[in-house]
Every structure is written in C-alpha cells, then in structure tokens.
Amino acid sequence: MAAYSYALQVNKCSLQRPSLPHKIEHFSNPLSTSFKPLLRDLDQFPNISVDVTKAIKETSCKLLDAFVDFIFEFADQPLLPSQRNFAPVEEIGESTLSVTRVEGTIPDDFPEGVYIRNGPNPLFGGLKSTRSIFGESDHMWVEGEGMLHALYLKKNGRIRGSWNILYKNKHVQTDTYKMEKDRKKPGFLPAIEGDSPAVLLAYLLNVLRFGVIDKYLSNTNVFEHAKKYYSIAENHMPQEIDIHSLETLENWNVISGSWTRPFTSHPKKAPGTGELVVIGIDAQKPYFELGVISADGKKMVHKADLMFDRCTVCHEIGVTQRYNVIMNFPLTIDISRLVLGGSLMRFEENGYARIGIMPRYGDANSIKWFEVEPCCVFHIINCFEDNDEVVVRACRARQSVIPGPNSRVNHFEKWLKGRSSKDERIEFTKESTFPRVCEWRLNMKTGEVREKKNLSGDEFAMEFPLINEKFTGFRNKFAYLQVVESTEISGSGFTRFGGVAKLHFEEKRIPTNTFCSGASFVPKPGGVDEDDGWIITFTHNENENISQVYIVDAKKFTNEPVAIITLPSRVPYGFHGAFMPLES
User: Fold this and answer.
1) What is the pLDDT of residues 72-104, one digit of tens each?
2) Which of the four, 30, 124, 376, 424, has the lowest number of CB atoms within 10 Å?
3) Has UniProt tagged this entry with the keyword Oxidoreductase (predicted)?
C-alpha cells in the first residue's frame, strides 16, 4: 500500500389510488410548483362534486396507464464493464447476515455503533430511459431508489477483543417507492433529462397518474438530529428510519407543516446551539428558503426567503459560529427553458456565481454577497471565521457533472464537446469537470475575495469531504476526501474513487482496482486532538468482486488499515455514509 505526500499544509400518483397520502398531494418539491401553470385551467371548475371527480379520476386511471404502456417503451440504461458495481442488488430480507472475516484487529477503544451508507439502488433492473414519438427522457446517473447498507459493530463482552459484526441492507420505503413496488413494473416516467416534449409529457402523466411529478428518491445521505435518524435526498422531505431494523418510519413533516419544501441533503448543526440549519429550493418563487430547527427538533426557530432571482441547485449549506454560508452558483433549474426546448437543468457557463454570508437568524437583506469566478460546488469541506474573514473550503469544479451525459451520448468527450459555449469557449475536460479543493477568504469589512485554487494540487481530483464534526464551523486542520481514480473518465457520470486523502496532506491508497464510497470519520471516545479517531469506508474489489469495510487510524494515516471486514454481500457504489454510536 503506497502513500503519497503533499508539500502543502492546509489549516484547514396517483389519481387511481384513493389511499394516496394527503401529504404527497400537497408537498412542494423543487419542480412540482413549476408545473402549476400547465394545470391552472383545472381549477376553474370548483363546483364539481367530489364523487364525480373521484369517478372521473378512477375511470381515467386505466386509460392513462394504457396510454403510457402503448406509447412509451422503457429501456434499461446500459452499464459499461467498469461500471458493474453500480448495478443494483436485491434486499437480503428481514434478517441480518453475520460477518466473520476480519483481517487485522478492530481497536478496543473503537466505539460500538452502526455504520450506514446511502446510495441509489434502482428498482426493476436499473436506471431507465423511455422512448416514444415525443422523444426520449432519461434518468440521471444520480437517480435510483435509495438503499441503506448498514454494518453493526458490537463488542462481545465475554471475549476481550472480540466483536459481533452484522450486515443488513434495505430500500428506503418512500411513498413513491411503495407505489411503484406495488405495480411490479416501472411506472414513473423520467422527468428531468431528455427531449423537451418527452420531459414535459412525463411531468403531465406522472402528475395525472401518481399525484407527483417524480419519484422521491431518498438516496443521498443519512443524518441524525435530536436522537432521530433520517434518510434524505433534496427532492423531498427526510424519511425517519430505525437504524436497528432499517425500517422506514415516516416522513419528517417539520413543525406541523411550517416547512413545505425539501431539505438539502446536507443540513448542518449550528455550533454551540445544536440547531439544525436547512435550505430548500423550488423551481418557482420563492426559489430558495432557509430554516433553522430547534435542537430538540420540535420547533421552527427561524425561516427566511432569500429572494433569489433564479432556482439554483444548492446541495449543501455551510455554517460558522455566527453565520450561514450560501452558495449561489450557476447550476440552475428553469421550467421556462424546458418549455422553449432547452434543458430543465443546466450549468450556465456564463452565469454569475456568488457566496452569501448571512447572520444565523437573518433575512435576504442581511446577506453580504461576494462575487466569485463561475464554477460548480456540491460539497463544502468546512467554513469558519478568522478575524474579519469568513473562510470557505470546498470541492470546486469549473463545470458540473450534473445532469451529465445521458444514455444517448455515452461518450464523455462528446458530452463535453456538445456543451461548449458559443460565447466563451471553455475547454471541457476531465480536469475541468472533476473537482479540486479550493479556499475562499471573504472579508466582511472590505468585501475583498481571496481565492486559492487547487489546494490539493492539479494531479488529484477529490470529492465527498468529511471532517471531525466537532470542528464544524470552527477552524480545522484536517479533512478527509475520496480521491477520484486517476484513470477515471466516466461516460455516464459514474465515478469511482480509488483512495482516501487526508488534507495536510497524505493520500491513503487502497489496493489496485479497489474503490471506496461513503467514508465517515469516527471520533475516538475521549479523544483530544482533531484527528483522534478512525476513517471507516465501504470498499469494493473489482478484481475479486468482494465488498469490504476498511477501518483506518486517522493519526497513522499512512499505515495499513487496522481492520478489513469482508462483507457477505456486494455493496454497490453509493454516496454518503455516517457512523451512529450506540447508546449504552
């Protein structure tokens, strides 16, 4: 196992389903309200009786399903040989599988807990495209129903140094997951990427048949608040889960409906108070709202419309001791653009980019905006205050891999070439699309912006950052990121990560043709230093088709893993993971 050192140190629907939950019909996702103009005429007949309306709906249901079955052809999006571990797996059932193969030793002071990683696991064979006389629409590579993969680590009290280790997986059973599972075949038409007429018709038919525009995926992250655990993707509210059984309990209807839009996939706990800071976007005004939820999860402490003039896709929010950090970058959703024949979601190369610093309980007028060079940021590493400056560290790319190439353009180079701007010829390459670590220093007094690009060097692209969460919002010296495989040039947006890097800076390599996902920092009980703890991550060896979990000592980062746990089931690549300590 090799280690690489860096010289730089960083301080771093359904109308036919009468049982459709009330909350689905009235929940606002980022796209649903944008569809209202297309349905406005339906509200001109308020005196139609409920019974007649219900009868019409039930009669129309079968006709609509027959229309879809006749007009639309569902097809699986193919995976390349190098993408085989992105293929979905089956649930293992209600039982858990015992894990007995462990190389090395799990430290005695490693905390008991549950390591959970979320990720897409599409129903019915994989991501879909639909073809019809109206054109083609496609699932994006980030879609697919969420599946939780959990590793349970509990000490065997009878034998010192012995651990009982169990593995379990389970789909997150959102409302739309249940709808489609009951049908036993694909039902929702892809409604984000593709030919404009096909996407618009998908909107209409999904609403008429299911009551919502698109599926609630819940495939991106897991988080804890007020001793409850949630699965999340930013097209819906979080789903509360039981981390012991992985059962989906209910949607988190925040504070009796005071929040009526989705969450970001990365809400943040405010330093000092433990309040949860969330954001939510919509494709019509108000485009962007921020909320602060009490530490006990029972009260919406603050909510503000930030008065955006566009719907910008914002995947994460930053927090410092006093401020919220808002990323307003030019990856946008625009229903008008779609109606005119363009893409619903697009990275606007010539669009503006700015970072907003907002007092914790401020409003739109209290935000101080800093103009920065146009770019795309999905993940923030950390933010903190340094005298008059707010420091923002993030994974920055010149372009966006979302929505990315679709199944009809299965070559990365063609996708990049096709997205070149007529006004500004930007070179679209792997180097410009995969992110590097960046730092912005924003002076709250002078308005000056100091930017440092490529803190990790030009050679390595990095994503999915994590830190010791005790340092969220404070100055930190260390961060850990998954390293994009050096040979990666994905033709459909899928990316494999061949290692974990510690900023400060050392890279932790894993064996050749082995890739990781869902890395998480596990603090050492009673630890004092920032890097007192371990990195835990799911890995997959593509040579042997074996999935494992690595545990690496964060202080001795260049050493071999302290333990390698071989799993009884393949774990597809996914997104974010978290370690949840068990309460004694």
Assistant:
1) 999 999 888 888 899 999 999 888 999 999 999
2) 424
3) yes
β-sheet with 276-281: strand ranges across: 268-269, 276-281, 288-293, 300-305
As a whole-number percent, the residues of the chain with pLDDT over 90 amount to 61
Band of the pLDDT at 30, cuts 50, 70, 90? low
**Token duo for residue 351:** 């669009």
Cα(584)–Cα(579) distance, integer angstroms = 15
Answer whether the bond into residue 525 is a cis peptide, omega within 30°.
no
Query: Which of 302-310's residues contact partners 24+ apart within 8 Å by CB, and which partners?
Result: 302/360, 302/361, 303/258, 303/259, 304/362, 304/363, 304/364, 305/363, 305/364, 306/356, 306/358, 306/363, 306/364, 306/367, 307/364, 310/334
- Residue 543, classed as helix, strand or coil, is coil
Half-sphere exposure of 315 (CA within 13 A, CB side): 19
> What gap in Å lies between CA 40 and CA 303, rounded to an integer?
28
pLDDT digit string (tens) for 365-375? 999 999 999 99
Number of C-beta neighbours around residue 341 at 10 A: 10
Spatial CB neighbours of 37, under 8 Å, sequence gap ≥ 6: none
User: What pLDDT does residue 259 have?
Assistant: 87
Rounded CA-CA distance 465/481 in Å is 4
What tokens were used for 99?
A: 């894990």
Taken in order 144, 145, 146, 149, the sign of the CA dihedral is: negative
Apex 258 CA angle, 256 and 264, nearest 5: 110
Confidence class of residue 404 from pLDDT cuts 50, 70 and 90? low
Question: Degrees (nearest 5) of the Cα angle 516, 517, 519?
Answer: 100
Cβ count near 193 (within 10 Å): 25
CB 487: neighbour CB atoms within 10 A? 8
- Exposed e or buried b per residue across 468-480, where buried means at least 16 C-beta atoms within 10 angstroms of its C-beta: beebbbbebbbbb
